[in-house]
Amino acid sequence: MSSPTKDERIEIRVTAGQKASIRAAAAIEGRTITDFSVSALTEYAAAVVQRDRELRVDAESLEIFFETLDRPARSLRGLRELLTRDTIFVD
């Protein structure tokens, strides 16, 4: 299977210190600066997009969630007794 054609370009400006750090990290991994940078940027971009998707909640779902939180607590059989009995653990 052939790899996709890389026909897009990204140009960025960095400080000398940033470039030195990137160059050192790429060398440690035995990769080119380009390969290292593309990999790091792609991984970070995927994480940002995933985090955004996980945190986004539509208005209807959020309203249902808030309504559920606003409901009075219900008594669960045995829970009060369980929480008030002496512990089996030794301090």
Question: What does it look like?
Answer:
By secondary structure, the chain is an all-alpha fold. It has one domain (16-84). 59% of the residues lie in helices and 0% in strands. It has helices spanning 16-28, 33-55, 59-70, 79-84. The longest helix is centred in the middle third of the chain and has 23 residues, at 33-55. The chain is elongated and about 65 Å long. The mean pLDDT is 91.
Which properties best describe this structure?
91 residues; mainly alpha
- Name the average pLDDT: 91
Q: Number of helical runs?
A: 4
Radius of gyration, taken over Cα atoms and rounded to an integer in Å? 26 Å
Main sheet makeup: none
Strand-pairing-aware structural class: mainly alpha
SS elements, strand count: 0
Identify the quaternary structure here. Answer: single chain
Report how far apart the termini are. 62 Å
Number of domains: 1
| Percent of residues in helices | 55-70%
Indicate the proportion of strand residues: under 5%
Overall geometry: elongated
Quick summary:
Helix content is 59%, strand content 0%. It has 91 residues and is mainly alpha-helical. The chain has one domain.
Secondary structure blueprint with pairings:
Layout: H1 16-28, H2 33-55, H3 59-70, H4 79-84
